[in-house]
Amino acid sequence: MSTSVPLTIVVPVTAIPPSLADNTADLDRLKRAVVAALPPLLAQQSVHAPFISMAGLAARFRAADFKGWVLAQVLPERLELIDFLAEKPDRVLGVALDVGSTHLEASLINLLTGNVLARSEVLNRQVEYGTDILSRIHFADTHEGQNVLQQAVVSSINDLIRKLCQEAAVQPEEIFALTAAGNTTMVHLLLGLSPHHLCREPYIPLVNSPDPFLATEIGLRLHPQALLWLLPSRGSYFGGDLIAGILSVSLDQTEETAMLIDVGTNAEVVLGNHDWLIACAGAAGPALEGGVARMGMRAAPGAIEQVKIDRETWQLTWQSIGDLAPTGICGSGLIDLAAELYLAQIIDLRGKFQREIANQSAARQCFVQERLLERDDETVFVVADNVVVSQTDIDAMMRSKAAMYSILETICGQVGLGFSELTRIHVAGAFGKHINPRQAITLGMLPDLPLSIFQPAGNTALQGAEMLLLDYALWERCQHICRKITYVELNVNQEFMLRFSGSRFIPHTDPSRFPSVPHFR
Amino acid sequence: MSTSVPLTIVVPVTAIPPSLADNTADLDRLKRAVVAALPPLLAQQSVHAPFISMAGLAARFRAADFKGWVLAQVLPERLELIDFLAEKPDRVLGVALDVGSTHLEASLINLLTGNVLARSEVLNRQVEYGTDILSRIHFADTHEGQNVLQQAVVSSINDLIRKLCQEAAVQPEEIFALTAAGNTTMVHLLLGLSPHHLCREPYIPLVNSPDPFLATEIGLRLHPQALLWLLPSRGSYFGGDLIAGILSVSLDQTEETAMLIDVGTNAEVVLGNHDWLIACAGAAGPALEGGVARMGMRAAPGAIEQVKIDRETWQLTWQSIGDLAPTGICGSGLIDLAAELYLAQIIDLRGKFQREIANQSAARQCFVQERLLERDDETVFVVADNVVVSQTDIDAMMRSKAAMYSILETICGQVGLGFSELTRIHVAGAFGKHINPRQAITLGMLPDLPLSIFQPAGNTALQGAEMLLLDYALWERCQHICRKITYVELNVNQEFMLRFSGSRFIPHTDPSRFPSVPHFR
Q: Do residues A13 and A33 touch, judged by C-beta distance below 8 A?
């Protein structure tokens, strides 16, 4: 283990037993011994004993003959003593949580060793009351809506914690710290705060950086003194999930300028290095995340994630996650499909299906006849037996890809940086894991850079939450990141709107920006 | 009002409303405005919003157009925001409490003005389970005893708070801070902590200086976020009531050496100045407090507080508190009586009743015949129709007076100080209010000093608690006093035992120490 201090610590204490010459009270004696044993990082902390712990601490300290281990919460400016143990415990548990709008993912970690004991995920029960963020914000405004949404996510988290505990054969009461990263709306709903203003100009959250509080206060079932640490948000459209992401790829500490792209409900992008950070977000996500396309789905088993159209034989092959019979198509599958359709000239540079092209082969004609059907007044493309993609779906994808590219252009433009100056583009989440950067470049969604620049970064929200669990110093670093970030509001950005228009072609109205694409044919 | 900062404060805040150019979250905006408005004493405090307050704070701040008043708890190292108010409130209430073993006394104070809105007292219901401290410590060791005693004092405090609120026509929910001073046993029982070790060598409390905590945690009915601040103890026999006493007479800040005497269950004495403090306590109290004499009672209406025996006419006159028919005799009455009996030679220098003396007058003989009766195998002196004092009572008083003088001698001896070097002796409580120092000197209970040296100091425990309520800086001063005090343990002090033997005569085995007494005849 490193020398970092986790959010809940175990401190070895030894005190000289009391005597007539030293009649310090038991609890004061304990505090004194704790202060003497603190690591340098915590030397300035004052030591408090909350009322609920007082009796047990003093009694057990005495019973153990004034020698043993203190369990304590590390808080800003102070240490809160929770318990006294005669023996050093094997484990002190913490949970890191990614509060996604659709799924919650979490890790159960032994804070003493840093070992991950279990990882799991559950559906966010809020989905019942609205699949997208905006519909939940509106639902929260209805009678009892806010309360219903809070209960939904809290009970989902409780389920998830139970799952983790079952998997690791431990009890929820052994969990002393919970770190959670979510977007600003998810955090408001979790806290029981109204998200009303989040989607209304000037887009002001009620809170960006809540102080840590008892997890039981919102109905979570952990140790009664477990604290909930929410990674701070920077604004309504830049949540703690992104701050966690910045932590996880150390964007705020790299010397060379890098970028983090996280495609969820929105496409959220951060650009920077150890000197500066700039961020923006825009609605590039839904089509990619599976929220818009009729057959769209999350990158989960059964989702088509890869499509290949052989332009000699006109054979279409696909790959589904887990090699299961396909039940839909995920964002990366849709991008793969669109790129292949474009390269095969089944869609044109506007993304529109085209039945006829000049000089087409009989094989293509046959392919088009089989796959391009009319259904419910619109053209759909048959990917597999049960999976079709409509013109509407492609249009949405086109808007998403245009938004994504315009966002990347705008954010780089803000600091006068060319794409070629980027050393690394971290692509978070399922999108980063499944996307084929070459296909995204073909569509003009990602800039035309060497493919090695694009690095899948995994669930960066969860990773950041895990890191915080194991390193109290990151709490202040998160606050510092929040203060440091310049946030560019795209909703009112004229430049962005112009760029967006230019990006609604494949790969772009200015094809010179994508010199590699002709070679992909 | 002075510039002191009460434990609960109201801070005026004004913030620039949010805009696209400044999208700071409401709560962060509020915190920023609070930081800007803090008085210098609090400039180092970090500002926290507890979970329970978060939603209300942010919503009301916005509703009031980002301008108004913040109600906050001042805590060590941090400020906890409770509420946001559009209008400045007229009052923010606090209660100061003296947790006596027999009676609880309290003041209701408007923290904004320092005005006392009500004062009241109730019986401590713990009396039901033992009149003296020791019997309660033993009762606490019985099954559920500790819990029963905690409930008893908590319900008494709730009664008292209700009384105060009725008197001032306010609600308990308006009370945000409670300061309480009590001896170490009372504090342990109030906290639900075992007092078992307090009366057992080496006399170690479980806690001397509890951190402030929510009053509701022990079942007190105030505002849900009201904090309970317990004045810290120095040891098992030196409680927060005495620390409050030191505050109230500023013993820790005077240039000239002074003394504080508090006679309760024990006689507790502090000697010192701004450089040093020394303290000790001993069992001098019960006989004086009304806990031992058969007809003894507290200095309450109906108690005989003054006795005069005219040695010419052999008429006895008495004065009762409130001029009521006498129902008993209080400590100061007993001292008055004993001094008069000694001067009239009804008791000898050992404190023993004497029927016959050499050369006595017929009037004395008649007086003795009427007043000195035999009852239940012992001699009693009839003070009034229903009030008699027995040889046992006088004996107890003699032990108490001997203990008191020996304590004062011992503590001065510890620092090599003569009584004549004292500039002031503050005498706390009912004892200080009712005692006639001349009579106490006659008995050899108090040293033979000019009468003006002795100053009644009132309920110093309550006064100290009141001061803390209005001045947060005193919290640190209390801790400092605790660290500064040298406590002399009399239970193991050989010198004290020798002095005690010498003091069991009236006025003393060495009458030269009391040159004034012959002149009192």
A: yes
What A490-493 contacts at long range (C-beta under 8 Å, 24+ apart), as own/partner pairs, is: A490/A280, A490/A281, A490/A282, A490/A407, A490/A410, A491/A201, A491/A203, A492/B20, A493/A410
In B93-212, DSSP assigns E strands to 93-99, 103-110, 116-123, 175-182
Any idea what DSSP says for residue B211?
P
Q: Using a CB-CB distance cutoff of 8 angstroms, which residues of chain B are in contact with residue A62?
A: 197, 206
Which of B20, B208, B233 faces A201 most closely, judged by CB atoms?
A: B20
ipTM passes above 0.90: no
- Which chain B residue lies closest to A77 (C-alpha atoms)? B77
The one-digit pLDDT tens for each residue of chain A (521 residues) are 458 999 999 999 999 999 888 889 999 999 999 999 998 889 888 999 999 999 999 999 999 999 999 999 999 989 999 999 999 999 999 999 999 999 999 999 999 999 999 999 999 999 999 988 889 999 999 999 999 999 999 999 999 999 999 999 999 999 999 999 999 999 999 999 999 999 888 889 999 999 999 999 999 999 999 999 999 999 888 899 999 999 999 999 999 999 999 987 678 899 999 999 999 887 765 555 554 556 677 778 899 989 999 999 999 999 999 999 999 998 888 999 999 999 999 999 999 999 989 888 999 999 999 999 999 899 999 999 889 999 998 998 898 899 999 999 999 999 999 999 999 999 998 888 888 999 999 999 999 999 999 999 999 999 999 999 999 999 999 999 999 999 887 877 888 888 998 899 999 999 999 999 998 87
**Alpha-carbon gap, residue A269 to A271, rounded angstroms:** 7
Nearest-CA distance B168 → chain A (Å):
30
User: In the 8-state DSSP scheme, what is residue A210?
Assistant: P
CA atoms of B478 and B475, how far apart (whole Å) = 5
Q: What does pTM read for this prediction?
A: 0.90
Using a CB-CB cut-off of 8 Å, the residues of chain B touching A213 are: 50-51
Residue B20 and residue A236: Cβ atoms within 8 Å?
no
Say if the Cβ atoms of A20 and B214 lie within 8 Å. Answer: no
d(CA B293, nearest CA chain A) in Å: 33
Q: What are phi and psi of B494, to 5 degrees?
A: -60, -45
Report CB contact under 8 Å: A207, B25. yes
Q: How far out from the chain centre does Cα B413 lie?
A: 25
Residues of B in contact with A77 (CB under 8 A): 46, 77-78
Nearest CA in chain A to B208: A25
Full set of structural domains in chain B with CATH: 8-85 (3.10.20.880), 93-230 (3.30.420.480), 249-285+397-509 (3.30.420), 288-395 (no CATH)
Determine the residue of chain A that is closest to B52 in CA distance. A217
Partner-chain contact A206 B235, CB within 8 Å? no
Count how many Cα atoms sit within 13 Å of the Cα of residue A294 in the half-sphere of its side chain: 18
Kindly report the nearest CA distance between residue B19 and chain A, in angstroms.
5
Helices A460-470 and A473-484, interaxial angle, to 10°?
130
Q: Which of A24, A77, A206 comes nearest B25 by C-beta?
A: A206
Q: How confident is the prediction for chain B on average, in pLDDT?
A: 92
Task: Name the closest residue on chain B to residue A201, using Cα atoms.
Answer: B20
Please list every residue in chain A whose beta carbon sits closer than 8 Å to the beta carbon of residue B218. 51
Question: Could B27 and A54 be called an inter-chain contact, meaning their C-beta atoms sit closer than 8 Å?
Answer: no
The C-alpha atoms of residue A290 and residue A282 are separated, in whole angstroms, by 16
A308 forms beta bridges with: A317
Collect all residues with Cβ–Cβ distance below 8 Å to B186 and sequence separation of at least 6.
Answer: B99, B100, B101, B133, B153, B239
Radius of gyration of chain A (CA): 26
Look-up of token digits 């406590």 = B487
Give how far A287 is from chain B: nearest CA, Å. 28
Tally the C-alpha atoms within 13 A of residue A20's C-alpha that lie toward its C-beta: 9
